[in-house]
Write a structure and sequence with these properties.
The chain has 278 residues and is an alpha+beta fold. Helix content is 27%, strand content 30%. Bound molecules: cytidine-5'-monophosphate (C5P). The site of cytidine-5'-monophosphate has 11 residues, from strand 2 and helix 4.
């Protein structure tokens, strides 16, 4: 049996480029894992079953955890089945990468339980078949991601920081936010290595090109951002396609507006070990 932490991610910046022929968008983003996360307990079994403490989470073949076990069997020829208990703490439809993190964590668990000598780079490649954000979780927690998100340039850890995660009850479906971005048809900006260096040296603020379409879908989110900005935080930004915000600095995130508020910190792992909760 193995119990693994499955961290959430935030996007410290997110630039969206052109829509591609395959329907995805090219992007440039700095991803960071945080101490908010789920817990997966996995054991080898004679049947495959996924249980979750949150009844709103599907536990059938649509769940990315079961897509990961199936993919692992397909890729390796392993026939092992797993009993999996998921303790869900990452809000869903929140832009925090919960499902993708769970899938990456499950691939890591499969490798551990089968004791197969599979390079982490290979798990990263397989992960991209499950979702665009899955490969990132095989970095050590800080990475510059490009392509549709699956091209991962691992970076050293950033300065430690606390981060407030503010999650409205109503989530946002990722595909719809990207569709709305297309219909808004603003100018698409570029992003290059100099911009990345500017960000890493503190000369470029956080930004997210998906805020405009997300606020267009749900104007209450734009209002929430203003209220959080007025609460004293240095930076308030939608994470990924939303609907969660992350707030950096020393503000007061009140549990108002029907939001769940969690204090977390940046989290990194070492090369040989999976993420551990703080
Ligand atoms: O890869 P994933 O399944 O997480 O993506 C969900 C949806 O988000 C895609 O079907 C696509 O509509 C949109 N998407 C996109 N460009 C990306 C990532 C996601 O258009 N780089």
């Amino acid at each position: 049996m193995i119990t693994l932490f499955s961290p959430a991610k935030i996007n410290l910046f997110l630039r969206i480029h052109a829509k591609r022929a395959d329907g995805y968008h090219d992007l440039s983003s700095l991803f960071q894992t945080i101490t908010l996360g789920d817990m997966l307990t996995v054991s080898v079994s004679d049947r495959e079953v996924l249980r979750c403490d949150d009844p709103s989470i599907p536990t059938d073949a649509h769940n990315l955890i079961l897509k990961a076990t199936r993919l692992f069997r397909e890729k390796t020829g392993s026939s092992l089945l797993y009993e999996i208990d998921l303790v869900k703490r990452i809000p869903t439809k929140a832009g925090l990468g919960g499902g993708s993190s769970n899938a990456a964590t499950m691939l890591w668990a499969c490798r551990a339980l089968t004791k197969m000598a599979i390079p982490t780079q290979t798990l990263m490649k397989w992960g991209s078949e499950i979702g665009s954000d899955v490969p990132f979780f095989f970095s050590e927690g800080t990475a510059f991601c490009t392509g549709r998100g699956e091209r991962v340039l691992c970076l050293p850890p950033l300065e430690p920081a606390k981060v407030w995660i503010v999650s409205p009850q109503e989530g946002l479906p990722t595909a719809e936010v990207y569709r709305r971005l297309q219909s808004l048809a603003g100018d698409r900006k570029t992003f290059n290595k100099e911009d990345l260096n500017a960000f890493l040296t503190g000369n470029l603020a956080c930004f997210n090109d998906l805020e405009e379409p997300a606020f267009d879908i749900n104007p209450k989110l734009g209002q929430l951002k203003k209220e959080l900005q007025n609460s004293g935080f240095n930076q308030v930004l939608l994470s990924g396609s939303g609907s969660s915000f992350f707030c950096l600095g020393d503000g007061k995130a009140k549990s108002a507006l029907d939001c769940a508020v969690v204090l977390a910190h940046f989290l990194n792992r070492t090369a040989s070990q999976w993420y551990a909760p703080a």
